[in-house]
Amino acid sequence: MLIAFCIYKYFPYGGLQRDFMRVAKEILSRGHAVRVYTRQWEGDKPSDLEVIKVPTTSIRNIGKNIQYYRWVQNHLKAHPVDKIVGFNRMPNLDIYFAGDVCYAENNKNRSFLYKLSSRYRHFIKFEAAVFNKGLNTKILLLTEKSKNDFQKHYDTEDSRFYLLPPGIDPDRKYDKQPSNSRENFREEFKIQPDQKLLLQVCSNYELKGVDRSLKALANLPEEIKKKIVFFVVGQDSPDKMRQLAQSLNIQDQVHFFGGRDDIARFMLGSDLMLHPARHEAAGIVILESIVSGLPIIVSGACGYASYTDKAQAGIVLNEPFNQNEYNQAIRNVLMDTVLLKKWSKNAKDYADRTDLYGLAKKAADIILDQQ
Q: Membrane spanning segments where (predicted)?
């Protein structure tokens, strides 16, 4: 079979992009072909993927989306495929991989004027073209919560939803790393024995709440704060958050890294993961933290937040988010070394007994009608 994958942007460090690549490779491994339509591709291109860069000229993202969709439809008419799989929402998909939160639900409290905007109307139209009742598009879900949100707004039939297991790369697991990884990492980055290293991994600093973390660290008692180092890893411009760190007088303790391929090392070298995202359909970094044995404090807005509770590996914050609750949670955890060790052990135990790795195989089964 020839399968078309539609994704607006590919870069190696986004959660959606990593899921896309794993599913593509799984389909290729079964002897099928994959053609990718994308507006932007960063990083290496696997030689067995047919990657087609879609030309767009619009300045605005919604204009680019519309141009992309029309160009792809015309190309598919001239060069047909067996299935069309979307990793972004658009009309005429056979399968949609639901890696983003429900737009209608996330914007339900917006003003009347905002809902008249071209931006709102575009995203609602493209979302409805996937989820409206009566359509045939199969929907690959990451969490049950997402299903409830979509059905609330579009009355989508139960039979069209397929819940996927998580899809962590098994190589991220703690027991796949060299035994001295933590010591070598902390020596390389000059982390002292009495210091606690806090980590946040994300490709959109504002959406994932880096500002919330900076405010929480600035709020720590001085005796705790002076022994904290905070690493922020991910593909985004650090300028705005760096300015915030300076205004909070914690700039010397905060270090920004771009996207990296050695996240497993960062997780093994850290003491606590922070992920206070404003919204997150799933949050693969939550599971990667757990399989690394790294305790985590995560916002309840994340689809995978429940795994933190299941693993007893950290704290899930209440929604709506409360900055004081977050501040206090970090403070309490940093004062309790025994609790951190317990959470780390719990996380490893959970990773040993739970299937957190099967997403790509299940998605490929559904795409190829082998489920």
A: none
pLDDT above 80 for 370: no
Q: Report pLDDT for 371.
A: 59
What proportions of the chain, in percent to the nearest 5, are helix, strand and coil?
A: 45, 15, 35
Same domain, 149 and 284: no
pTM: 0.90
Please check whether residues 74 and 13 belong to one and the same domain.
yes
Phi, psi of 16 (to 5 degrees): -60, -40
Whether residue 217 is found in the same domain as residue 345? yes
* Average pLDDT, integer, range 356-371: 92
Do 348 and 361 belong to one domain?
A: no
| DSSP label at residue 321 | -
pLDDT tens for each residue of 286-324: 999 999 999 999 999 999 999 999 999 999 999 999 999
Domain tally for the chain?
2
**Spatial contact of 248 and 218, defined as CB atoms under 8 Å apart:** yes
Q: In the sheet that 138-141 helps form, which strands lie side by side, from edge to edge? A: 50-53, 33-38, 2-6, 83-86, 95-98, 138-141, 161-163
CA–CA separation, 351 and 206 (whole Å): 29
The pLDDT tens digits of the residues spanning 335-344 come to 999 999 999 9
Say whether both 132 and 278 belong to one domain: no
Residue with tokens 């299903």: 147
In whole angstroms, what is the distance from residue 142 CA to residue 99 CA?
7
Do 115 and 205 share a domain, yes or no?
A: no
3-class SS at 13? coil
Q: Are 137 and 160 in contact (CB under 8 A)?
A: yes
d(CA 79, CA 17): 25
On whether both 43 and 118 belong to a single domain, the answer is yes
Buried b (16+ CB within 10 A) or exposed e, 112-148: eeeeeeeebebbbebbbbbbeeebebbbbbbbebbbe
Where in the sequence is the domain holding 80, given as residue range(s)? 2-167+357-367
